[in-house]
Known about the structure:
disordered C terminus
Amino acid sequence: MISAISWVPKGASKSTPTVADPPPPEEIEELIANHTTTSGDSDIEEASDEVAQALAVADAVGKSTTGNCDDIALALKDLDMDHYDEEDEGFEIFSSGKGDLYHQSNDMDEYLIDRKGDDSEEFEDMIINPTDSVIVYACTEDDVSYLEVWVLEDADSSEMNMYSHHNIILPAFPLCTAWLDSPLKGGERGNFIAVGSMEPSIEIWDLDVIDEVQPCLVLGGFEEKKKKGKKKSIKKYKDDSHTDSVLGLAWNKEYRNILASASADKKVKIWDVVAGKCDITMEHHSDKVQAVAWNHHAPQVLLSGSFDHTVVMKDGRMPSHSGYKWSVTADVESLAWDPHTEHSFVVSLEDGIVKGFDIRTAHSDSSSDLSSTFTLHAHDKPVTSVSYNPSAPNLLATGSMDKTIKLWDLSNNQPSCVASKSPRVGAIFKVSFSEDNPFLLAIGGSKGKLHVWDTLSDSGISRRYGNYNRNRSQSGS
Protein backbone atom coordinates (compact mmCIF):
# COMPACT_ATOMS: atom_id res chain seq x y z
CA MET A 1 0.00 0.00 0.00
CA ILE A 2 1.01 3.61 -0.58
CA SER A 3 0.47 5.56 2.63
CA ALA A 4 2.03 8.96 1.79
CA ILE A 5 3.05 11.06 -1.22
CA SER A 6 5.24 14.18 -1.51
CA TRP A 7 6.16 16.20 -4.61
CA VAL A 8 9.72 17.54 -4.86
CA PRO A 9 9.88 21.07 -6.37
CA LYS A 10 11.46 21.28 -9.80
CA GLY A 11 15.16 22.06 -9.66
CA ALA A 12 15.52 20.99 -6.01
CA SER A 13 17.15 17.64 -6.85
CA LYS A 14 20.79 17.28 -7.88
CA SER A 15 21.10 16.51 -11.58
CA THR A 16 23.31 13.53 -10.71
CA PRO A 17 22.74 12.08 -7.21
CA THR A 18 25.64 10.94 -5.06
CA VAL A 19 26.17 7.23 -4.38
CA ALA A 20 26.66 6.56 -0.68
CA ASP A 21 29.82 4.88 0.56
CA PRO A 22 29.22 1.44 2.08
CA PRO A 23 29.18 1.46 5.90
CA PRO A 24 32.34 0.28 7.66
CA PRO A 25 32.43 -3.38 8.81
CA GLU A 26 32.08 -2.48 12.50
CA GLU A 27 28.91 -0.52 11.77
CA ILE A 28 27.46 -3.46 9.83
CA GLU A 29 28.26 -5.78 12.74
CA GLU A 30 26.56 -3.38 15.15
CA LEU A 31 23.44 -3.23 12.98
CA ILE A 32 23.31 -7.02 12.83
CA ALA A 33 23.80 -7.28 16.59
CA ASN A 34 21.01 -4.77 17.27
CA HIS A 35 18.59 -6.81 15.17
CA THR A 36 19.53 -10.17 16.70
CA THR A 37 17.00 -11.47 19.23
CA THR A 38 17.11 -14.35 21.67
CA SER A 39 14.23 -16.48 22.85
CA GLY A 40 12.67 -15.63 26.16
CA ASP A 41 9.58 -14.23 27.84
CA SER A 42 10.78 -10.62 27.49
CA ASP A 43 11.17 -11.01 23.73
CA ILE A 44 7.71 -12.53 23.43
CA GLU A 45 6.23 -9.66 25.40
CA GLU A 46 8.09 -7.13 23.23
CA ALA A 47 6.84 -8.79 20.05
CA SER A 48 3.29 -8.79 21.43
CA ASP A 49 3.59 -5.09 22.21
CA GLU A 50 4.75 -4.38 18.66
CA VAL A 51 1.84 -6.35 17.20
CA ALA A 52 -0.61 -4.56 19.47
CA GLN A 53 0.83 -1.18 18.48
CA ALA A 54 0.67 -2.04 14.78
CA LEU A 55 -2.98 -3.05 15.08
CA ALA A 56 -3.81 0.05 17.08
CA VAL A 57 -2.21 2.42 14.57
CA ALA A 58 -3.72 0.59 11.61
CA ASP A 59 -7.09 1.14 13.26
CA ALA A 60 -6.16 4.75 14.01
CA VAL A 61 -5.38 5.62 10.41
CA GLY A 62 -8.44 3.75 9.18
CA LYS A 63 -6.52 1.50 6.82
CA SER A 64 -7.07 -2.25 6.61
CA THR A 65 -3.91 -4.34 6.88
CA THR A 66 -5.59 -7.39 5.28
CA GLY A 67 -6.71 -5.89 1.99
CA ASN A 68 -3.65 -7.08 0.06
CA CYS A 69 -3.94 -10.81 0.85
CA ASP A 70 -6.00 -11.69 -2.21
CA ASP A 71 -3.77 -9.59 -4.45
CA ILE A 72 -0.65 -11.31 -3.11
CA ALA A 73 -2.17 -14.77 -3.60
CA LEU A 74 -3.08 -13.99 -7.20
CA ALA A 75 0.39 -12.58 -7.90
CA LEU A 76 2.08 -15.71 -6.54
CA LYS A 77 -0.21 -17.85 -8.65
CA ASP A 78 0.78 -15.90 -11.77
CA LEU A 79 4.48 -16.33 -10.95
CA ASP A 80 3.99 -20.13 -10.68
CA MET A 81 6.56 -20.33 -7.88
CA ASP A 82 6.17 -24.12 -7.55
CA HIS A 83 7.87 -24.55 -10.94
CA TYR A 84 10.24 -21.59 -10.65
CA ASP A 85 13.42 -23.66 -10.80
CA GLU A 86 12.35 -25.68 -13.84
CA GLU A 87 14.07 -24.49 -17.04
CA ASP A 88 12.40 -24.56 -20.42
CA GLU A 89 13.65 -27.42 -22.57
CA GLY A 90 16.37 -26.37 -24.99
CA PHE A 91 16.93 -22.97 -23.41
CA GLU A 92 19.63 -21.95 -20.95
CA ILE A 93 18.49 -19.41 -18.43
CA PHE A 94 21.76 -17.42 -18.55
CA SER A 95 22.07 -17.55 -22.34
CA SER A 96 21.00 -14.88 -24.83
CA GLY A 97 19.06 -17.54 -26.71
CA LYS A 98 21.24 -17.04 -29.80
CA GLY A 99 24.28 -18.82 -28.46
CA ASP A 100 26.96 -17.40 -26.20
CA LEU A 101 29.40 -14.99 -27.84
CA TYR A 102 33.11 -14.47 -27.19
CA HIS A 103 34.60 -11.01 -27.68
CA GLN A 104 38.31 -10.47 -28.28
CA SER A 105 38.23 -7.40 -25.99
CA ASN A 106 35.82 -5.90 -23.46
CA ASP A 107 35.46 -2.85 -25.70
CA MET A 108 33.56 -5.03 -28.16
CA ASP A 109 31.17 -6.42 -25.56
CA GLU A 110 27.95 -4.37 -25.53
CA TYR A 111 27.31 -5.37 -21.92
CA LEU A 112 30.65 -4.04 -20.70
CA ILE A 113 30.59 -0.64 -22.41
CA ASP A 114 31.50 2.23 -20.09
CA ARG A 115 28.28 2.96 -18.25
CA LYS A 116 29.33 6.55 -17.71
CA GLY A 117 29.29 7.29 -21.42
CA ASP A 118 26.74 9.67 -22.88
CA ASP A 119 25.17 6.80 -24.81
CA SER A 120 24.39 4.78 -21.70
CA GLU A 121 20.64 4.64 -21.16
CA GLU A 122 21.16 3.56 -17.55
CA PHE A 123 23.34 6.57 -16.82
CA GLU A 124 20.89 8.93 -18.50
CA ASP A 125 18.08 7.53 -16.35
CA MET A 126 19.97 8.67 -13.26
CA ILE A 127 20.10 12.29 -14.46
CA ILE A 128 17.30 14.53 -13.16
CA ASN A 129 16.76 17.51 -15.43
CA PRO A 130 15.49 20.88 -14.14
CA THR A 131 12.30 20.34 -16.16
CA ASP A 132 11.59 16.94 -14.56
CA SER A 133 9.14 16.49 -11.71
CA VAL A 134 10.01 14.18 -8.83
CA ILE A 135 7.49 12.27 -6.72
CA VAL A 136 8.37 10.46 -3.50
CA TYR A 137 5.91 7.98 -2.06
CA ALA A 138 6.02 5.76 1.02
CA CYS A 139 5.07 2.16 0.34
CA THR A 140 4.82 -1.15 2.15
CA GLU A 141 4.89 -4.44 0.27
CA ASP A 142 4.55 -7.63 2.28
CA ASP A 143 6.90 -6.97 5.24
CA VAL A 144 9.16 -4.44 3.48
CA SER A 145 8.66 -0.67 3.78
CA TYR A 146 10.47 1.81 1.57
CA LEU A 147 10.46 5.22 -0.09
CA GLU A 148 10.19 5.12 -3.87
CA VAL A 149 11.57 8.09 -5.84
CA TRP A 150 9.95 8.51 -9.26
CA VAL A 151 10.90 10.91 -12.04
CA LEU A 152 8.23 12.37 -14.30
CA GLU A 153 10.07 13.58 -17.37
CA ASP A 154 9.17 17.06 -18.61
CA ALA A 155 5.63 16.98 -17.22
CA ASP A 156 4.75 20.06 -19.30
CA SER A 157 4.82 18.01 -22.50
CA SER A 158 1.80 16.24 -23.95
CA GLU A 159 3.13 12.75 -23.15
CA MET A 160 4.27 11.81 -19.66
CA ASN A 161 7.14 9.37 -19.19
CA MET A 162 7.48 8.24 -15.58
CA TYR A 163 10.02 5.82 -14.13
CA SER A 164 11.49 4.71 -10.81
CA HIS A 165 14.78 6.46 -10.03
CA HIS A 166 15.81 4.83 -6.75
CA ASN A 167 14.38 3.67 -3.45
CA ILE A 168 15.22 3.87 0.25
CA ILE A 169 14.52 0.95 2.58
CA LEU A 170 12.74 2.01 5.79
CA PRO A 171 12.94 0.20 9.13
CA ALA A 172 9.27 0.73 10.06
CA PHE A 173 5.83 1.04 8.47
CA PRO A 174 5.60 4.63 7.09
CA LEU A 175 2.49 6.71 7.80
CA CYS A 176 3.31 10.22 6.56
CA THR A 177 5.98 12.25 4.74
CA ALA A 178 6.95 15.89 4.30
CA TRP A 179 9.50 17.32 1.87
CA LEU A 180 11.84 20.02 3.18
CA ASP A 181 14.88 21.96 1.95
CA SER A 182 16.37 22.90 5.32
CA PRO A 183 20.19 23.28 5.20
CA LEU A 184 20.90 20.20 7.31
CA LYS A 185 24.30 19.63 5.70
CA GLY A 186 25.35 23.24 5.29
CA GLY A 187 24.84 25.39 2.24
CA GLU A 188 21.69 27.30 1.38
CA ARG A 189 19.26 24.50 0.62
CA GLY A 190 18.94 20.73 0.66
CA ASN A 191 16.64 18.04 -0.69
CA PHE A 192 15.25 15.97 2.17
CA ILE A 193 12.19 13.91 3.05
CA ALA A 194 10.90 13.53 6.61
CA VAL A 195 9.15 10.25 7.39
CA GLY A 196 6.77 9.52 10.25
CA SER A 197 6.08 5.87 11.01
CA MET A 198 4.71 3.43 13.56
CA GLU A 199 7.85 4.19 15.56
CA PRO A 200 7.95 7.30 17.81
CA SER A 201 10.84 8.77 15.83
CA ILE A 202 10.96 10.97 12.72
CA GLU A 203 13.60 10.02 10.15
CA ILE A 204 14.96 12.54 7.65
CA TRP A 205 16.58 11.15 4.50
CA ASP A 206 18.71 12.89 1.88
CA LEU A 207 17.04 12.37 -1.52
CA ASP A 208 20.25 13.32 -3.34
CA VAL A 209 22.08 10.25 -1.98
CA ILE A 210 21.53 6.77 -3.44
CA ASP A 211 22.07 3.50 -1.54
CA GLU A 212 22.13 5.23 1.85
CA VAL A 213 21.37 2.84 4.72
CA GLN A 214 20.93 5.37 7.52
CA PRO A 215 18.92 8.61 7.70
CA CYS A 216 20.93 11.80 7.99
CA LEU A 217 18.87 12.86 11.04
CA VAL A 218 16.53 11.18 13.53
CA LEU A 219 14.22 13.28 15.70
CA GLY A 220 13.10 11.61 18.90
CA GLY A 221 12.75 7.84 19.18
CA PHE A 222 14.66 5.49 21.43
CA GLU A 223 18.15 5.59 22.81
CA GLU A 224 19.66 2.30 23.86
CA LYS A 225 21.54 1.98 27.11
CA LYS A 226 23.38 -1.18 28.15
CA LYS A 227 22.74 -2.57 31.58
CA LYS A 228 25.76 -2.92 33.79
CA GLY A 229 27.26 -6.36 33.50
CA LYS A 230 24.77 -7.43 30.81
CA LYS A 231 25.08 -7.58 27.06
CA LYS A 232 21.42 -6.77 26.44
CA SER A 233 20.51 -3.10 26.24
CA ILE A 234 17.34 -1.37 27.41
CA LYS A 235 15.32 1.11 25.38
CA LYS A 236 14.46 4.54 26.69
CA TYR A 237 12.73 7.42 24.94
CA LYS A 238 14.94 10.33 24.03
CA ASP A 239 14.17 13.65 25.68
CA ASP A 240 11.10 15.35 24.14
CA SER A 241 10.41 12.36 21.88
CA HIS A 242 6.95 11.27 20.84
CA THR A 243 5.95 8.12 22.69
CA ASP A 244 3.75 6.62 20.00
CA SER A 245 3.39 6.52 16.21
CA VAL A 246 3.86 9.71 14.17
CA LEU A 247 0.69 10.18 12.10
CA GLY A 248 1.21 13.60 10.49
CA LEU A 249 4.02 15.96 9.42
CA ALA A 250 4.09 19.53 8.09
CA TRP A 251 7.12 21.56 7.04
CA ASN A 252 7.07 25.35 7.40
CA LYS A 253 8.09 26.88 4.06
CA GLU A 254 8.74 30.32 5.59
CA TYR A 255 10.66 29.22 8.69
CA ARG A 256 12.55 26.49 6.87
CA ASN A 257 14.11 24.83 9.91
CA ILE A 258 10.69 24.18 11.47
CA LEU A 259 8.78 20.88 11.23
CA ALA A 260 5.47 20.10 12.99
CA SER A 261 4.46 16.56 13.92
CA ALA A 262 1.22 14.91 15.06
CA SER A 263 1.20 11.68 17.02
CA ALA A 264 -0.94 8.92 18.42
CA ASP A 265 0.42 9.99 21.82
CA LYS A 266 -2.11 12.92 21.63
CA LYS A 267 0.66 15.51 21.27
CA VAL A 268 1.73 18.04 18.65
CA LYS A 269 5.43 18.90 18.53
CA ILE A 270 7.40 21.68 16.85
CA TRP A 271 10.94 20.66 15.85
CA ASP A 272 14.00 22.65 14.89
CA VAL A 273 15.51 20.23 12.38
CA VAL A 274 18.80 22.15 12.04
CA ALA A 275 19.36 21.99 15.80
CA GLY A 276 17.88 18.48 15.87
CA LYS A 277 15.63 19.14 18.86
CA CYS A 278 12.03 19.73 19.90
CA ASP A 279 11.23 23.37 20.72
CA ILE A 280 7.55 23.13 21.69
CA THR A 281 5.23 20.33 22.84
CA MET A 282 1.47 20.97 22.79
CA GLU A 283 -1.11 18.82 24.54
CA HIS A 284 -4.40 20.43 23.53
CA HIS A 285 -5.99 17.22 22.20
CA SER A 286 -7.43 14.32 24.20
CA ASP A 287 -6.99 11.60 21.56
CA LYS A 288 -4.70 10.67 18.66
CA VAL A 289 -3.65 13.64 16.51
CA GLN A 290 -3.94 12.67 12.86
CA ALA A 291 -2.93 15.76 10.88
CA VAL A 292 -1.16 19.13 11.09
CA ALA A 293 -0.87 21.99 8.57
CA TRP A 294 0.80 25.42 8.49
CA ASN A 295 -1.13 28.38 7.07
CA HIS A 296 0.26 29.41 3.65
CA HIS A 297 -0.15 33.16 4.31
CA ALA A 298 0.42 33.32 8.07
CA PRO A 299 3.25 30.83 8.67
CA GLN A 300 3.05 31.14 12.47
CA VAL A 301 -0.47 29.64 12.44
CA LEU A 302 -0.76 25.87 12.86
CA LEU A 303 -3.86 23.69 12.47
CA SER A 304 -4.22 20.23 14.00
CA GLY A 305 -6.99 17.62 13.74
CA SER A 306 -7.66 14.76 16.11
CA PHE A 307 -9.67 11.66 16.83
CA ASP A 308 -11.21 13.64 19.72
CA HIS A 309 -13.50 15.19 17.04
CA THR A 310 -11.90 18.61 17.20
CA VAL A 311 -9.71 20.87 15.06
CA VAL A 312 -7.51 23.34 16.91
CA MET A 313 -5.74 26.44 15.58
CA LYS A 314 -2.68 27.76 17.40
CA ASP A 315 -0.95 31.06 16.62
CA GLY A 316 2.76 31.21 17.43
CA ARG A 317 2.51 34.98 17.72
CA MET A 318 0.31 34.46 20.80
CA PRO A 319 2.06 31.68 22.73
CA SER A 320 0.00 32.22 25.89
CA HIS A 321 -3.30 31.97 24.00
CA SER A 322 -5.12 28.65 24.31
CA GLY A 323 -6.06 28.73 20.63
CA TYR A 324 -9.35 28.27 18.79
CA LYS A 325 -11.29 25.03 18.60
CA TRP A 326 -13.84 23.67 16.14
CA SER A 327 -15.95 20.58 16.82
CA VAL A 328 -16.68 17.99 14.14
CA THR A 329 -18.87 14.90 14.02
CA ALA A 330 -16.25 12.16 13.55
CA ASP A 331 -12.53 11.33 13.62
CA VAL A 332 -10.41 13.74 11.59
CA GLU A 333 -8.69 12.01 8.66
CA SER A 334 -7.00 15.00 6.98
CA LEU A 335 -7.10 18.80 6.73
CA ALA A 336 -5.75 21.53 4.47
CA TRP A 337 -5.50 25.32 4.37
CA ASP A 338 -6.82 27.07 1.27
CA PRO A 339 -3.68 28.35 -0.54
CA HIS A 340 -5.65 31.22 -2.09
CA THR A 341 -6.80 32.83 1.15
CA GLU A 342 -5.45 32.83 4.69
CA HIS A 343 -8.76 32.42 6.51
CA SER A 344 -10.28 29.19 5.07
CA PHE A 345 -9.56 25.52 5.59
CA VAL A 346 -11.26 22.16 5.05
CA VAL A 347 -11.39 19.03 7.18
CA SER A 348 -12.19 15.50 5.98
CA LEU A 349 -13.72 12.98 8.33
CA GLU A 350 -14.02 9.27 8.90
CA ASP A 351 -17.78 9.34 8.15
CA GLY A 352 -17.28 10.58 4.56
CA ILE A 353 -17.99 14.24 5.35
CA VAL A 354 -15.87 17.23 4.30
CA LYS A 355 -16.43 20.44 6.24
CA GLY A 356 -15.25 23.96 5.44
CA PHE A 357 -14.41 26.61 8.05
CA ASP A 358 -13.62 30.33 8.12
CA ILE A 359 -11.37 31.44 10.97
CA ARG A 360 -12.92 34.92 10.88
CA THR A 361 -15.92 33.41 12.65
CA ALA A 362 -13.72 32.32 15.57
CA HIS A 363 -14.37 33.78 19.01
CA SER A 364 -11.96 34.41 21.85
CA ASP A 365 -13.60 31.59 23.80
CA SER A 366 -11.51 28.63 22.66
CA SER A 367 -14.13 26.11 23.83
CA SER A 368 -16.84 27.49 21.55
CA ASP A 369 -18.51 25.05 19.17
CA LEU A 370 -18.25 27.01 15.94
CA SER A 371 -20.35 26.31 12.87
CA SER A 372 -18.85 25.42 9.50
CA THR A 373 -19.25 27.36 6.24
CA PHE A 374 -20.35 24.18 4.45
CA THR A 375 -20.89 20.49 5.09
CA LEU A 376 -20.40 18.12 2.16
CA HIS A 377 -21.25 14.43 2.07
CA ALA A 378 -18.35 13.76 -0.30
CA HIS A 379 -18.01 9.97 -0.10
CA ASP A 380 -19.73 6.95 1.43
CA LYS A 381 -16.54 5.85 3.19
CA PRO A 382 -13.77 7.73 5.07
CA VAL A 383 -12.28 10.69 3.18
CA THR A 384 -8.64 9.88 3.84
CA SER A 385 -7.03 12.79 1.96
CA VAL A 386 -7.77 16.25 0.54
CA SER A 387 -5.70 18.54 -1.67
CA TYR A 388 -6.34 22.09 -2.90
CA ASN A 389 -5.33 22.97 -6.43
CA PRO A 390 -2.50 25.52 -6.07
CA SER A 391 -3.48 27.38 -9.23
CA ALA A 392 -7.27 27.29 -9.58
CA PRO A 393 -9.15 28.85 -6.65
CA ASN A 394 -11.88 26.74 -5.00
CA LEU A 395 -10.81 23.49 -6.73
CA LEU A 396 -10.47 20.68 -4.19
CA ALA A 397 -9.59 17.00 -4.67
CA THR A 398 -10.85 14.35 -2.25
CA GLY A 399 -9.76 10.71 -2.03
CA SER A 400 -11.63 8.00 -0.16
CA MET A 401 -11.65 4.42 0.99
CA ASP A 402 -14.46 3.95 -1.55
CA LYS A 403 -11.70 3.86 -4.23
CA THR A 404 -12.76 7.08 -5.96
CA ILE A 405 -11.30 10.55 -6.50
CA LYS A 406 -13.63 13.53 -6.76
CA LEU A 407 -12.90 17.12 -7.78
CA TRP A 408 -15.08 19.82 -6.22
CA ASP A 409 -15.81 23.45 -7.00
CA LEU A 410 -16.19 25.15 -3.60
CA SER A 411 -17.21 28.57 -4.98
CA ASN A 412 -19.54 30.56 -2.71
CA ASN A 413 -19.33 27.76 -0.12
CA GLN A 414 -21.72 25.71 -2.28
CA PRO A 415 -19.69 22.62 -3.28
CA SER A 416 -20.46 20.93 -6.58
CA CYS A 417 -18.73 17.85 -8.03
CA VAL A 418 -17.08 18.72 -11.35
CA ALA A 419 -15.23 15.44 -12.03
CA SER A 420 -14.69 11.98 -10.56
CA LYS A 421 -12.41 9.04 -11.29
CA SER A 422 -11.77 5.48 -10.15
CA PRO A 423 -8.01 5.11 -10.76
CA ARG A 424 -7.88 1.39 -9.85
CA VAL A 425 -5.34 1.82 -7.08
CA GLY A 426 -7.60 0.27 -4.45
CA ALA A 427 -8.78 2.14 -1.38
CA ILE A 428 -7.24 5.61 -1.69
CA PHE A 429 -5.01 6.84 1.12
CA LYS A 430 -3.34 9.92 -0.36
CA VAL A 431 -3.96 12.53 -3.07
CA SER A 432 -1.68 15.48 -3.79
CA PHE A 433 -1.66 18.23 -6.44
CA SER A 434 1.74 19.30 -7.79
CA GLU A 435 2.90 22.86 -7.09
CA ASP A 436 4.87 23.04 -10.35
CA ASN A 437 2.27 21.34 -12.55
CA PRO A 438 -0.90 22.30 -10.68
CA PHE A 439 -3.29 20.06 -12.60
CA LEU A 440 -1.29 16.88 -12.07
CA LEU A 441 -2.73 14.88 -9.18
CA ALA A 442 -0.69 12.06 -7.61
CA ILE A 443 -2.77 9.24 -6.13
CA GLY A 444 -1.78 6.26 -3.96
CA GLY A 445 -3.76 3.48 -2.31
CA SER A 446 -4.02 -0.06 -1.04
CA LYS A 447 -2.74 -1.73 -4.24
CA GLY A 448 0.66 -0.04 -3.93
CA LYS A 449 0.51 1.56 -7.39
CA LEU A 450 1.25 5.22 -8.01
CA HIS A 451 -1.21 6.92 -10.38
CA VAL A 452 -0.75 10.42 -11.80
CA TRP A 453 -3.91 11.98 -13.22
CA ASP A 454 -3.68 14.92 -15.61
CA THR A 455 -6.98 16.42 -14.50
CA LEU A 456 -7.08 18.74 -17.52
CA SER A 457 -7.68 15.63 -19.63
CA ASP A 458 -11.22 15.75 -18.21
CA SER A 459 -13.24 17.97 -20.55
CA GLY A 460 -15.21 19.54 -17.70
CA ILE A 461 -12.05 20.53 -15.82
CA SER A 462 -10.39 21.79 -19.01
CA ARG A 463 -13.35 24.03 -19.90
CA ARG A 464 -13.75 25.43 -16.43
CA TYR A 465 -10.15 25.79 -15.24
CA GLY A 466 -7.93 25.63 -18.34
CA ASN A 467 -7.09 29.34 -18.09
CA TYR A 468 -5.51 28.73 -14.66
CA ASN A 469 -2.90 26.36 -16.07
CA ARG A 470 -0.12 28.81 -15.35
CA ASN A 471 2.71 26.34 -15.84
CA ARG A 472 1.94 25.29 -19.39
CA SER A 473 1.16 28.82 -20.53
CA GLN A 474 4.48 30.05 -19.13
CA SER A 475 6.43 27.22 -20.74
CA GLY A 476 4.84 27.97 -24.10
CA SER A 477 5.49 31.71 -23.98
